Amino acid sequence: MPVALRPVVALVALTLAGCDAAPGFADEVPRPALADVALTPTAFALDTDAPRATVPLAVTGTLDAQGPVEVRVLVRYAETDSLVTETVAEVAGGAFRVEAPVVLPRGAVGPYSVRVTTEGADGRAGDQASAVLDFAAANLGPPTVVASAPGSVARPAEGRVARLPFTATVTDPDGRENVRAVVAVDPETGGVIGRLFDDGEESDATADDGRYTAVIEVTADFEPGTYALDLVAIDRAGAQSEPAPYAFTVR
After folding, report:
1. Which has the higher per-residue pLDDT, 12 or 142?
2. How far apart are CA 38 and CA 108, in angstroms?
3. What pTM did the predictor assign?
4. Smallest Cα–Cα separation from 100: which of 120, 79, 74, 81?
């Protein structure tokens, strides 16, 4: 049996030796390569009181590739690292231009990261490039805060904690995206006691609805009586709302 197989093995070896690639496998396609990539515009300012801005974003460059290439443009808001928009286009080798307009809320000012990726006709990833878009808009005024009705809680026994949630409804002429933080402040010292959140987690019922929530944890160390807080919202330009008083009673 081994003697009979030798000619077959030799024939296969000769066949493979005579090929540039193994039978059934195509030659490898070079990965797409980018050059002279540019972003326009790199800065955009909204000069009206419109609630949103449409930025005519475009990416240009030169592509060295065989066959059609998928070019993907991803725009992320640096402040929250959230994806704003994604544009996909099929381009050929040579000079290219991809239009990737993006709509931005006027309050979401600051830098946006723009990443360009490529994928060749064979599905393999190619070159990438990145840039930054700076977005600005005139501030239309500070936010406004309305505190929830006063709360009341019984003082707990030693070693236990009573939780008292409270909310602040916040509006901003530049849009909710312009609110950077909502804090509880000691009305006597002006010191920040804690922060309220609108993220839909823990005591906050719904994310991004303009209702910011926090929880006061009352222990046996609290003396019975009424306690006062001021709730203040701060926008991305640093403008602060008028303090909204909030009081709670420990019985």
Report:
1. 142
2. 23
3. 0.71
4. 74
Q: Which residues pair with 105 in a beta bridge?
A: 52
End-to-end CA distance of the chain: 98
Q: What is d(CA 116, CA 206) in angstroms, rounded to the nearest whole number? A: 34
CA 106 remoteness from chain centre? 16
Supply angle C-alpha 78, 80, 86, rounded to 5: 65
Between CA 98 and CA 89 the distance in angstroms is: 7
Query: Any idea of the CA torsion for 213, 248, 157, 192, to the nearest 10 degrees?
Result: 60
Q: Quick one: pLDDT at residue 27?
A: 53
Alpha-carbon span 33 to 120, nearest angstrom: 10
Strands (E), the chain: 33-40, 43-46, 52-55, 58-64, 69-77, 82-91, 94-99, 102-105, 110-119, 125-137, 144-147, 151-153, 162-171, 179-185, 192-196, 211-218, 225-235, 244-250
Fill in the amino acid letter for 87.
T
Mean pLDDT on 166-182: 92
